[in-house]
Amino acid sequence: MALMITEECINCDVCEPECPNQAISMGPEFYVIDPAKCTECVGHFDEPQCVQVCPVECIPVNPEMVEDKQSLLQKFQRLQEAGG
Ligand code: SF4
Ligand code: SF4
Description:
CATH class: Alpha Beta
Radius of gyration: 12 Å
Bound molecules: iron/sulfur cluster
CATH architecture: 2-Layer Sandwich
Distance between the termini: 23 Å
Shape: globular
Number of helices: 2
Oligomer: single chain
Number of domains: 1
């Protein structure tokens, strides 16, 4: 699953540097997650790093991007290849 940021985001900036996939960026009004880059931190960490640091808990699973762990691992591997 990719995660998403809701409008409750207070633009505190702490999640963006924590993302190992550079999936988080500032959107028109609040931060957004690129679902093509978010692996739910699979391949890097045991827990989603953005969720760990977000002070207002506004980062749920994106209901339109439900993926199993295998898909997330494949996405991680694609991103590694593209980045390397
Ligand atoms: Fe980035 Fe991980 Fe958050 Fe996805 S779950 S946006 S990969 S920090
Ligand atoms: Fe928004 Fe949470 Fe990220 Fe802060 S940590 S910018 S509140 S999503």
